[in-house]
Amino acid sequence: MIPHLVETDFEIVAYDKLPERLQLAKDAGAKVAGSVAEAATGADVVIQLTMSDDIPDVLIGEQGALAVVKPGAIVVVTSTTTPQMLNRVIEAAPAGVEVVDAPIVGGVRYAREKSVTFLLGGSEQVASKLDPVLSVMGIIRYVGKSGNGVAYKLITNVAIMAAEAGLREALDLADELDMDYELSLDLMSVGPMAAVVSRALDTSNPRPLRRSAEDDDTLLSAVSDPERVLPISVAGRGRLWEAVHAKEGFDPDFVDLTRKTTARNN
């Protein structure tokens, strides 16, 4: 995403705890900071791009962005997170700082192609201010008041995660019946699972499988009784984590859902 912003002449200051990612940001034309606080100091817009569990340190903590962000700034939360976590960020924001939720739909390939979708929740006035920034990186879907972006992302994830786990379970049955993976996937591609299979086989859009499992953890933590409200998601979360740990010493990518590397017989 950084290259798209740099090309549009925005001044970007980036921080990542992984040195290799920070180097990529520098190579793309961003200035690099030594901490989150340094990156957020003086910024008009702070865009957070982490997993939900990292939000407290990145935004709320003593060295987080909200500790240094200037009045009038906008903080954009793009994680798949929970309403509870978003409320913690909003409550921690100093006076004059607007927090907007804009979870991202789409992966690495979509980011390269400027085609991710931001599910933006917040006031229309703030959404209008963000349009010149977010539209450089993708498509903005304004979904209403603050919190709606987070809520709609979780809703869409229920269907997505069920489909991902269902794909792996279909191949579990192929294992039980001694059937071929390639033909099984080809036949699934004929019907409504076509998009799911295509996404799983797309090596140009990499994502560690554990990130999907972690997103399932986040999804289930959003409700008080997931066994009652989201029983399919509970089962799907279990199968995804089983797939993550299927092969000792191997950290599977999303594409491995379609391979023996996430089968139960490893």
Describe this structure in words.
The chain is mostly helical. It has 13 helices and eight strands. It has helices at 2-7, 19-27, 36-40, 55-60, 83-92, 108-112, 124-134, 148-176, 181-188, 194-201, 209-221, 226-229, 231-244, and strands spanning 13-14, 31-32, 45-48, 74-77, 98-101, 104-105, 116-120, 138-142. The strands form three sheets. A three-stranded parallel β-sheet has the order 3-4-5, sandwiched between helices. Strand 1 (13-14), helix 2 and strand 2 (31-32) form a beta-alpha-beta unit. Helix 8 packs across helix 11 (209-221), helix 8 packs across helix 13 (231-244) and helix 11 (209-221) packs antiparallel against helix 13. GO terms for molecular function: 3-hydroxyisobutyrate dehydrogenase activity; NADP binding.
